[in-house]
Specification:
The structure is a single chain. By secondary structure, the protein is α/β, with parallel strands linked by helices. It contains 9 helices and 8 strands. An 8-stranded parallel beta barrel has the order 1-2-3-4-5-6-7-8, surrounded by 5 helices. The mean pLDDT is about 95. The protein binds phosphoenolpyruvate (PEP) and manganese (II) ion. The site of phosphoenolpyruvate has 9 residues, from loops.
Length: about 240
């Protein structure tokens, strides 16, 4: 039997205590492994919703207590890592911070899993080198996450580069996850891209899920519903059997 594909799911952003606990319960029922939710949001527009900050971390921890799901959230600065690393299970480093070497060096001091997203236009080598800033210290627990790269074609948010999966498998010992949500930017693409990522051999998926996508405060166009996620979770099992 092939090893299970790990599913990280949750809203782009923690929006309220009630929202994250409600969604976390639905995800737990579906069999999601890890709960995501941004509280420090690296938004392109400074006037967009910036996240709930520390309050958001408290709400994530409550959602973890209610459901038992481990939590992953993005941290954006050395100060945030010092303050919050102990409170969360996995630290996400966003695409925009893949080149922030001072931040990566700080992470090298902790024995704490880091989900390192690929930079928007980073080569595989730059990405692998970024991971070494972390693993050169005591921290050996890095997960790489392909999240789409910039292309000349702006019909979709980014382009999902699934060649990253076999490349990283061949050239690195780190697990490779795929985030189809930030690559596609459109919810109708998430099902097929998730199945394709599993067919390519990824170790896990990170998918943005909201139970009221039309009300989401960030990335609403790419959010899928818990029901849509359930279909992905069911169908990737069939793909895993075939590629084995
Ligand atoms: C996210 O996962 O919420 C996010 C902002 O992703 P990225 O850094 O890949 O844009
Ligand atoms: Mn998002």
């Amino acid at each position: 039997m092939k090893k299970k594909v790990i599913i990280i799911a949750g809203p782009c952003a923690v929006e309220s205590r009630e929202q994250i606990i409600r969604i976390a319960k639905k995800l737990k029922q579906i069999g999601v492994d890890i709960l995501r939710g941004g509280v420090f949001k690296p938004r392109t527009n400074p006037d967009s919703f910036q996240g709930l900050g520390e309050k958001g971390i408290e709400y994530l921890i409550e959602a973890k207590e209610v459901t038992g799901l481990p939590i992953v959230t993005e941290l954006m600065s050395v100060e945030q890592v010092k303050k919050y690393a102990d409170k969360i299970d996995i630290i996400q480093i966003g695409a925009r911070n893949m080149y922030n070497y001072e931040l990566l060096k700080e992470l090298s001091k902790y024995d704490k899993p880091v989900l390192l997203k690929r930079g928007l236009s980073a080569t595989y080598l730059e990405w692998i080198n970024a991971s070494k800033y972390i693993t050169n210290g005591v921290n050996k627990r890095v997960i790489l996450c392909e999240r789409g790269i910039r292309s000349f074609d702006d019909s979709t948010r980014n382009v999902l580069d699934l060649q990253a999966v076999p490349y990283i498998k061949k050239n690195s010992n780190l697990p490779i996850f795929v985030d189809p949500s930030h690559a596609a930017g459109n919810n109708y693409m998430i099902y097929s891209m998730s199945l394709a990522a599993v067919a390519a051999g990824c170790d896990g998926l990170m998918i943005e899920v909201h139970d009221k996508p039309e009300e989401a405060l960030s990335d609403k166009e790419q959010a899928i519903t818990p029901d849509e996620l359930k279909k992905i979770v069911d169908d990737i099992k069939k793909i895993s059997e075939v590629i084995n």
